[in-house]
Amino acid sequence: MRESKVADVLRGAREVFLKCGFEGASVDAIAEKAKVSKATLYAHFPSKDRLFLSVLQAECDRLSEEICRPLSNAGDARGVLEELSRRMIGLVMDDDYIRLLRVCIGAVSVLPEAGEIYMDAGPTRAIKHVAQILRDLHETRSLSVENIQNAASQFIHLSISGVIMPRLLAVDQPVDAPEHSKRAVDAFLGVYGWRNGL
Q: Which domains does the chain have, with CATH numbers?
């Protein structure tokens, strides 16, 4: 299958999966959306399962790249953490991210690999990224962190706590991202801030 056809299939599949869910999506609908024949689709993706996992991996990679972009406030612990926290909140506020997470949750009962892909490409990668930032801040004595992995996980949870559940459950709740990130960073620095007035 030509590269452009693969891209067409993935784009069409992404749209159908995000709209209909894993079980609600049909190969016919995906082929129609991608403007390819079923034979062409199956030539590269032997099953709907494989196609879904490919879409999931690509989406998780795309969303992860947004979190892992270089930060603009290097050296300023509060600035770095607030920018990073706002990115986490922005991700949770992204409609495609929420649709993807809902679809993934719906798929794991019949396709457990989906959960593994999401965890590896999403939360696990995010924790590694945040951990590296915290390690750098610790080494410059901007933070005092003994267990970097735990602190990274706590930082992420502080950032999205109170935001992700209403989004998943389609509860309309306004979010002031700068204020939410400031409160998250205040709480984090209350535990891990170096004793220098941070």
A: 1-46 (1.10.10.60), 55-192 (1.10.357.10)
